[in-house]
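Exercise: predict the fold of this chain.
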Amino acid sequence: MMNYFKSWTLIRWIYASLGAYLAFVSMMDNQWIAALFSTYIAAMGIGGFGCAAGNCATNASQAKMNHKADQLHIDYLEIKSKFDGNKN
């Protein structure tokens, strides 16, 4: 059982403990919808899925977008205005 907790990160501990606390408080106040959402948050921490497992990072997707932007070629036409500020 102790090996299970050794792989937990700080974020996972926060999700599990905060979710469990909020679920308990919500149930004591008969706020069942809040208890449902906080139980889901606790389950993310305990089960290691969702953002608690680090699956919400966007570094890889941002790198792919930057790579595609480097390969993109845009043709444009510069249009000059009559009123460019030069008075003759």
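Check your answer against the key: Helices lie at 2-6, 10-28, 32-47, 59-71.
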